Amino acid sequence: MTRDDGRKLEAKAIPIMDVSARLGVDGLRRAGGEWVGPCPICGGREDRLQINPGRNVFLCRLNGDGGDQIALVQHVLGCDFLAALDYLVGESVAPPDPAELARRKAKAEADAARRDAY
């Protein structure tokens, strides 16, 4: 299996706030354009973890971990990239056909354009 089997685009199309809810990240409160709260891994102060839903990124202020939805799963679950993809969109049983990859890419681009417009 290759790292780019089409699941990455599908995973990145999931809003990061949905991913954080699925992971059970609790105690977040709105602070401007971001959501902040204690990090589920390192705990700490009530603003240790920042999630920016407009940019679909997060940051843990203690250790500097940050990134997209996939990186958030890796941070919270302590897993690697492929395990994070499995968690978000399911296991890859066979490489998708090119038409399916094109559909996923178009959906991811449309979602990104919608977020940018927001």
Describe the protein in words.
By secondary structure, this protein is an alpha+beta fold. The protein has five helices and five strands, in the order H-H-E-E-E-E-E-H-H-H. Strand 1 and strand 2 (34-37) form a beta hairpin. Helix 3 packs across helix 4 (81-89). The relative contact order is 0.19.
Topology:
Layout: H1 7-12, H2 16-23, E1 29-31, E2 34-37, E3 49-52, E4 57-60, E5 66-67, H3 69-77, H4 81-89, H5 98-117
Antiparallel strand pairs: 1-2, 2-3, 3-4, 4-5
Helix pairs in contact: 2-3, 3-4
Which overall shape is indicated by the principal axes computed on the Cα atoms? globular
Q: Radius of gyration, Cα only, in angstroms? A: 15 Å
Main sheet: strand order:
1-2-3-4-5
The proportion of residues in beta strands is: 5-15%
Structural class: alpha+beta
End-to-end CA span = 36 Å
Low-confidence stretches at least 5 residues in length (pLDDT < 50)?
A: none
Give helix and strand order, one letter per element, not per position. HHEEEEEHHH
Helix content: 40-55%
Largest sheet: 5 strands, antiparallel
